[in-house]
Amino acid sequence: MKRMPSSFIVMSLLVMVFLYLPVVILIGLSFNASTMGVAWKGFTFQWYEKLATDQAILDATVNSVVIALLSTGMALIL
Fold first, then answer.
1. Can you tell me the distance from the alpha carbon of 62 to that of 73, in angstroms, rounded to the nearest whole number?
2. H or E segment and range at residue 47
3. Rg of the chain (C-alpha set)
4. How far is CA 56 from the centre of its chain?
């Protein structure tokens, strides 16, 4: 079996970091008490509490789940 070139491995790792690092940072900052993500003001679930009590977001989530289930069912039938 041929061994992959080290440049391919390095480039693959750089692409993975480029894609996943912003997601990791966003998840970390979602627990920040500050309204601006620049300075850390403490750990909180306030944004998730607001998300869980916003009726428009809940309606959109239900619609997304229904569409996902219908699409999955249709794909399985086909």
1. 17
2. helix 46-53
3. 20
4. 20
Q: Is 73 left (phi over 0), alpha (psi -120 to 50) or beta?
A: alpha
The arithmetic mean of pLDDT across residues 37-56, rounded, is 88
**Through-space distance between the first and last CA atoms of the chain, rounded to whole angstroms:** 39
- Rounded to two decimals, the pTM is 0.63
Position of tokens 């970390």? 28
Tokens of 65: 């789940």
Encoded amino acid at 34, one letter: S
Tell me the domain boundaries of the chain.
1-44, 45-78
Q: What is the dihedral of CA 55, 60, 62, 68, to 10 degrees?
A: -170
